[in-house]
Amino acid sequence: MTIPFELRAEIGALQEVAVDVVRRARQAGADQADVGLSVGQGLSVNVRLGDVETIEHTLDRGLSLTVYVNQRKGSASSADLSAKSIQDTLEQAIAIARHTEADACHGLADAARMAKQDLDLKLWFPFELSPEAAIALGKRCEAAGLNADPRITNSEGAGVSASQSYSVYANSHGFVGIEAGTSYSVSASFVADAGDGLMERDYDYDAARDFSKLKDAEAIGLRAAEKSLRRLQPRQLSTRTAKVLLTPELTRGFVSHLASAVAGGAQYRKSSFLLGAVGEKLLPDWCHWLEKPHLEGAFGSANFDAEGVATENQALIESGVLARYVLGSYSARKLGLQSTGNAGGLHNLIVASNAGGHAELLREMGTGFWVTELMGQGVNGVTGDYSRGAAGFWVENGELCYPVSEVTIAGNLRAMYRDLIAIGSDVDYRGSIRTGSALLSAMTIAGG
What we know:
Blueprint: H1 8-27, E1 32-48, E2 51-69, E3 72-78, H2 83-97, H3 131-146, E4 152-171, E5 176-193, E6 199-208, H4 217-229, E7 240-246, H5 248-261, H6 264-268, E8 289-291, E9 314-318, E10 321-322, H7 329-335, E11 349-351, H8 358-365, E12 368-375, E13 385-396, E14 399-412, H9 413-418, E15 422-423, E16 433-434, E17 438-446
Helix pairs in contact: 3-4
């Protein structure tokens, strides 16, 4: 990336330290070594009922070092970047390596895979957000929600955050990589009461790399209040089978379950319901999932992965077929494969749509359950069994009928992927998985 002018001195100093630590690790007996140095600072403000609850300033520094001695791995880290602390960390890593088991799969990623392209991905948008300005923004957001309707009786607060971070990664292949990024967010949560003593809550938020791209604070507050109000006086459902529509936020989790199942660690440990599934048809023909690491301004963008391997556009799902696993160098070696540049995870997975927006998906569903909240951890990564608490709205003839709570939706992820009906065009851009709503075929809905 192009080093921002205001960071040149700081990043230059980190580069010198990183290169020196790798050199000293080699001198101390390491066959290979890599080091990551990071600096992050941020501001977080929370406002509740017009009063300031918290103001938090953060300044974090960190060093993580991994060394390899005769195929033995040792790792150590420190939040102190003083010379003594760095030397202690180095000695600890070497000592650990000398007492661990040798593993032929240990080691840096292949030197030929190191990133050579250095694109400016437009991730750095510094903005001086003072505590006073953040407080004012939070108050505006909260006031808009509290004043939206008399049934909004309480607030769980409005939050405003801003963060900047930069890092240097270096290894004994001679690779040195730089990353820097900013992030901003505004959120609010409210409690609604219809007068029957049964209260409901919901929230809304926005996040962006560039502060100027955030939604208006008042709009976020109003949206959070509206979402809380529409959940009032929910009903339970009798146990039944019906189609299910997930919001884009929840669809991100639905997609990530597949990504986790095809990650190298789950594969070589044989702890995945998609074991050995490359080349297998998992989803309908229209499904295409493409990783695009070089999107400007996106949350998951990166020139290289956590091991310095170059990132590139590559399909995960092609016409419903699993095209590859998600691999770093260690898991790739365990499987007899090559790293896919995914040490540390996926970078901007784009899930293609085959349908219109929310309203169109409701009409296509006809009758079913629109899920807006999921609870619990009832996902078994080994069997694919899926059972989670849910809340949302019952839909008939494409129209919302009434809110629903205290039910469970259940199925098996293999069947859920295979029978996926549609992905909407209502894409959520606030994360490293970009997807619209997911319309699922019949699932079991267990109610009271």
